[in-house]
Automatic annotation (TrEMBL):
Cofactor(s) needed: Mg(2+); Zn(2+)
GO molecular function: alkaline phosphatase activity; metal ion binding
Protein name (Swiss-Prot/TrEMBL): Alkaline phosphatase
Keyword Lyase tagged: no
Binding-site residues for Mg(2+), renumbered to this chain: 45, 145, 147, 267
Amino acid sequence: MKLRITLSALIGAALIQGCVSPEVASTGQPEQPQKPKNIIMVVADGMGPAYTTAYRNYMDDPGTEQVELVVLDRMLVGNASTYPANVSGYVTDSAAAATALASGVKSYNGAIGVDENKVAVESVLQRAKALGMRTGVAVTSQINHATPAAYLAHNESRKNYNEIADSYYDDKVNGEFVADVMLGGGTSYFEREDRDIVAQFIDAGYEYVDTYNKLATLPAGSKVLGLFAPVGLPPVLDDSRKNRLAYLTEHAIRHLENERGFFLLVEASQVDWAGHDNDIGSAMAEMHDLALAMEYLKDYVSQNPDTLVLLTADHSTGGLTVGANGVYEWRPQYLRGLKGSAVAIATELVNQSQPAVYLANQLGFELTDEERQLSVELAAQKDVKAAHKAIKTLLDTRTNTGWTTGGHTGVDVEVFAVGAGSSQFAGQLDNTDIAKRIFTLLQGASPGALSEPVNGSRDCDFKSDWHCQ
């Protein structure tokens, strides 16, 4: 019996390390990986391992002895490295990471669907479209932001937002638009004085909606362009729908389902934005928005077992620490009653006649004398930027949260998977391995270059504009 236990433990350890394929371990004979009909790729932008730990603690019931598991814990299968091409060192930006996740090719920071030589590379979404599958994206950023762009387009700079938006209409796969469904923000890029891309998509037969409620009125199977904000969606704490990612995901699937299958990219874009802003309240709210979407997708797979759902991050943002200042505590209870994001609260605080009452109501807990005095001083200063910073610091102090940077870090990120073919993503991977294994599941060959070098201006100032990150 001891020998059996030891062998079992060794096989399990080997599987976790990716040294033995799950098929060989279970049957003794290699098998073809189970090929999914539908693939749903979820990217939680900026979600390093500290975010998933923090979210578990944030959701914990303090009345029980153990910290309860969350949906992510039930899907964890491995880890992935995130470094970009050598020219950009060890710490990636979202564009290079998304290009790696989408195409299996390392590139420089800022690259959208191109390699180091600025030659376009095929994405898994584009391959799915070429194979006759329906395709879509559902994100909380603008739909032409770095991550969705790397799956849909090719450009030498992520900052060329108008060019990327143009390519969504201009580029074709087998004579068809690359995406059948596009949901997120970005009207300012698609309705411009020089070009009205929304009108062009409408004329091409797409349904266009600009509110969440209108999205629910469309007949299933429609081709849809849904733009719900000028740029990115509001922070989820300030949005009218607190489950907006699950909602967008559900409706994207409703329009993509068909006999030949579909590929859907989902992005929890604003985990990253909260990390750049060092805003722990918004970070946990965006994580909850993601978790609700993953709960929906987990249920979807149980009803549609021919579907693969993958979740990973492109990198970690902010250097979040669960505990800080040499104190062995983290107090998430101060985040659970927030009624708005730090920036939204700050914007209104400077106009309040009773700032202490307002701030306590918005934060969801009673203020100390020092915090009440601070609120009065901030309201008198009429400086939204200073108030925003002070509220974030207050929440960091209350929760004992730490941050090491306003940018990215180079740590590995977790990989989560469930459904058909999910065993192919177990163990320690590189981010490019994720795309390569999806290509295999799509019955295609390995990725490669598509065209001549892509022209454009690399005008993104990564030091001054964190939206470039």
